[in-house]
DNA sequence: GATGAATGAGTCTTCATTCAT
DNA sequence: GATGAATGAAGACTCATTCAT
């Protein structure tokens, strides 16, 4: 907490004025990260163009430098022991399954248009999300040695072979 | 250290009998994990069959439940501050670039046989490795909610479109 | 550290608020002790009277109850292994030789006036300092059984025979 | 205990075969040191020559390199807290007062012959012993910087002025 | 006699948290 | 709002001691 306060240029005493405890601060950050993530999905649906255009936009939006630390945060929240109950609830609400449900309509449409591979949509989505998160976490922990993947590369996991383009 | 010792059913005192410090224990684990990883590559080359067969074997070997914690360990070693100097050296020796160099001959052959996509081999390998590691780390941190990916799914990142099969 | 904190009536946590480590606290004490010692020499030169008067004042000043623990501290610093580098430097700066040099002018004058024995001044000073320190350390460790020596008794080590008085 | 055993070239297990505990080993060493000290006094009385000859022999015997660690040991025993009860008893038996009593006959004879200063014999002896011990302890803890005093120098504390010789 | 695996009390140190000012 | 002195639980590490072999 003292280090966080110092980073923010305030005393740790004042940090406790804004957040009752480290758990509360952590919970707040997780909440923000999750809202950002679901906001990204809404934005994707508003994006013009084909299914592939929307997906590419979603990936580009999620896989930028700013989003890095959010992924790391969620990872910590998922991976650590002794995480506050409230954080576990937030994470539960935004489970992989929840994201799968959000994206399923898009993928089903993509399969109708022939853009998306004709495998089980849920499996494709879960795979894409897992791989995207994993990539971001790796990059976030060691940016020097682990480059961000080209979103088009990741798309190969879900595209119909006919739509795969050179990198 | 006391928790580790308790997990092993010994006193922390005895743990210090075998490892001079937490750093030394950690270093030893990282060393083991890294040797396991490079061993997996050797084994892949000995595996019979096509390039795809070899790669599938490599992924299945790496992405099993036992290997889970090794990925998590390496991730910790890469991501954390205050990691012992020796660990940083070991990790430096087995960089992403090193793995890329090991796998490049196989990928070049795969491109000759038409099994592997005709993009830059280095980029394909780095992408596959990143995604594989990221997936394992996510799964290792939260096995209940994040299923292991089907290795064939990951292979889509590097296969020539003609060789992509339904999942 | 906990015992020291308890002696001071504070928690060990607060002690660490003021001193980053046991080494730093120890270093600070050694520094203070050494400054006190060299201050005693300055004061001696300002003291009025003959060479013997000055020396007697110096000994009385150094050999009081308060100074006791300082001698013990310096002794620990000299005698112990694993003493912080900075402490070794401070002690090196205030070596026996350094004190000898400080006192030499006074002793040479004393030899001119006939108050000080006509042996090698450096040897006389080193002997007096050693004996004074040793006495203080013994007294500090076991005040009940080892009485403080009368400074006049110590002076016999350096006085010309003609100036020796009954105790 | 492990370090002591290693110095002796045996395992710490075997050290416990010979000494039931660290306290017992320490007690044994203190006992030996004290017997050596009182043996030195007996030997002094057997030494031929004048009172000064005997005293000089005593000092030379006590202030050699071998005796160094014995003085340090006794000092530790006197100075430390938590010293075993038996050690405290041994030290109590060989108190300063006990040594004073042992040496008093010699000093009284020396005062008759005019060799020893005509101050209170007890005070002279206590002073000489204190100074001798202190010197040895200092030298033992830091032999490089603190030279052993010339025994003749120490004798000045107790000699009649007429018998003081150049160093 | 001899070894070293095994234990646990005690020590230094960190850090989240509280609270008087 | 803002500060930092103050606390204590918890973790890394050491070392005297025991005991099976």
From TrEMBL, chains A, B, C, D:
InterPro entries found in the cross-reference section: Homeodomain-like_sf (IPR009057), HTH-type_TetR-like_transc_reg (IPR050109), HTH_TetR (IPR001647), Tet_transcr_reg_TetR-rel_C_sf (IPR036271)
Transmembrane segment boundaries: none
Start and end residues of each HTH tetR-type domain: 1-37
Annotated keywords: DNA-binding, Transcription, Transcription regulation
Keyword match Transcription regulation: yes
SUPFAM superfamilies: Homeodomain-like, Tetracyclin repressor-like, C-terminal domain
Domain of life where this protein originates: Bacteria
Keyword Transport in record: no
Name listed for the protein in its UniProt record: TetR/AcrR family transcriptional regulator
Organism: Paenibacillus hexagrammi
């Amino acid at each position: 907490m003292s280090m966080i306060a110092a980073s923010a240029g305030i005393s740790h005493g004042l940090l406790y004025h804004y957040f009752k405890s480290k758990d509360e601060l952590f919970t707040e950050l997780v909440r923000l990260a999750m809202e950002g993530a679901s906001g990204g999905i809404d934005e994707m649906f508003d994006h013009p163009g084909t299914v592939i255009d929307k997906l590419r936009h979603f990936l580009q939006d999620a896989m930028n430098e700013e989003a890095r630390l959010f992924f790391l945060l969620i990872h910590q929240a998922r991976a650590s022991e002794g995480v506050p109950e409230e954080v576990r609830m937030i994470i539960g609400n935004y489970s992989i399954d929840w994201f799968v449900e959000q994206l399923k309509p898009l993928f089903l449409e993509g399969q109708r248009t022939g853009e998306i591979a004709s495998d089980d949509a849920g499996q494709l989505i879960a795979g894409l999300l897992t791989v995207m998160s994993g990539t971001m976490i790796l990059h976030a922990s060691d940016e020097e040695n682990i480059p961000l993947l080209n979103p088009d590369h990741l798309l190969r996991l879900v595209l119909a072979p006919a739509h795969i383009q050179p990198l």
